[in-house]
Write a structure and sequence with these properties.
This protein has a two-stranded antiparallel ribbon. The protein has helices spanning 5-22, 50-64, 68-74, and strands at residues 27-31, 37-42. It has 80 residues and is an alpha+beta fold.
Length: 80
């Protein structure tokens, strides 16, 4: 399934809502399967480093075609 811009925008709005509920301003980056940025948002008062972290994390997940939680598990010591 190809992720379209309208779907990416909706996912970004959902992520923004959850960040607001949590009270944590953040940057939200959504990349397509081929590693192209589809949607990016930077909430007011998010940390300056958040933009780079969000885009890097989302790109890596898209390029490797793995969820970020799975990449985090594999990045632990002793994992491949």
């Amino acid at each position: 399934m190809t992720l379209t811009f309208p779907v990416a925008r909706t996912l970004g709005r959902i992520a923004e809502h959850h960040a607001t509920v949590l009270g944590v301003p953040m940057c939200i980056a959504i990349f397509g399967r081929e590693g192209q940025l589809l949607c990016f948002a930077r909430m007011d008062c998010s940390l300056p480093a958040s933009a780079e972290i969000a885009t890097g994390k989302a790109y890596t997940a898209a390029a490797l075609r793995m969820a970020t939680h799975e990449l985090g598990r594999l990045a632990q010591p002793g994992q491949p």
